[in-house]
Amino acid sequence: MSSSSNSSATPVSTPANAANSDSVTVRLAQVRHAVSGACAEAGRAAGSVTLVAVSKTHPAEAVEEALAAGQRVFGENRVQEAKAKFPDLRGRFPDLELHLIGPLQTNKVKDAVALFDVIQTLDRPKLAEALAEEMAKAGRRPRLLIEVNTGEEPQKAGIRPADLDGFVAACRETWKLPVAGLMCIPPQDEEPAMHFALLAEMARRNGLAEVSMGMSGDFETAIRFGATHVRVGTAIFGARPYPAAG
Ligand SMILES: *Cc1c(COP(=O)(O)O)cnc(C)c1O
Q1: Whose CA is closest to 220, among 25, 72, 30?
Q2: Rounded CA separation 70/187 (Å)
Q3: Minimal CB count within 10 Å: which of 67, 120, 179, 241?
Q4: Which residue's alpha carbon is at the smallest distance from atom 4 of ligand 1?
Q5: Cα angle 119-154-115, degrees, rounded to a multiple of 5
Q6: Is residue 27 within 6 Å of ligand 1 at its C-beta?
Q7: Domain range for residue 189?
């Protein structure tokens, strides 16, 4: 959606339609505004929250529009999709930061370490071991966040809260991994606030600075509870053209 196609599609330009309200640019500005508003309300510094724009299922053109509007941090949930979409953009925007926010299989660890700057979904010992091995081999060390299954949902990935402190210690001492923080995806049918509070407390007591929580529907709540990273897809890029796997 370029501004030129915009102007040709709109015969009469009024303040209401001068900017296409469906555009990534406009929605991104709205989300940024909401993020800084939530920061101010929580008495937190503007800029203490990183907006991760979740571009999964959306084409590279949508990412380019966000890049043109100054967005540099993106999240993808599948290694293959990110591999098809991002290397080219990264060549043109060297300060782009790419986060993996979906489940990582051990047979994709090599690609993931090569491609991502942050892997938010470290969720099991076997993956910790594989990441340590690949990072040593590749000489590249993406920052890691540990995914915590705060709702203890049996079908959901993540370390259980009771096992978290031990897992953090093992990541640090056994595997020497660059663990920077925690992430969670609260159960869909519950108030997210208690999950956000729990995650922030677990990060604090483990001396972890980064807390990734909050999506399109609840990022302002997450900011109130201490999120340093919010992962926002739909509110920036619109509805996904097809369901995202994982
Ligand atoms: C898709 C996804 C998001 C973004 O969700 P929206 O509701 O579209 O903002 C955030 N986090 C994870 C882990 C996701 O898979």
Answers
A1: 30
A2: 32
A3: 241
A4: 233
A5: 15
A6: no
A7: 75-233
Q: Does residue 15 have a pLDDT over 50?
A: no
Report the DSSP beta bridge partners of residue 99.
Answer: 75, 118
Q: What is the pLDDT of residues 122-160, one digit of tens each?
A: 999 999 999 999 999 999 999 999 999 999 999 999 999
For residue 36, what are the contacts with CB-CB under 8 A and spacing of at least 6? Answer: 46
Does 245 sit in the ligand 1 pocket, CB within 6 Å?
Answer: no
Give the number of domains in the chain. Answer: 1
Q: Partners of 155 in the beta sheet? A: none
Per 3-state DSSP, the chain is made up of helix, strand and coil in percentages (nearest 5) of 45, 15, 40
Q: Does the C-beta of 21 come closer than 6 Å to ligand 1? A: no
Q: Which two tokens stand for residue 8?
A: 């040709």
Query: If pLDDT is split at 50, 70 and 90, which confidence band does 233 have?
Result: very high
Residue 239 lies in a domain: no
Tell me the best of 156, 183, 215, 216 to mutate to test the pocket of ligand 1, counting ligand atoms within 8 Å of each CB and taking the most.
215
Tokens 């060549």 belong to: 91
Residue 10 has pLDDT above 60, yes or no: no
pLDDT of residue 17: 41
Q: Is residue 40 part of a domain?
A: no
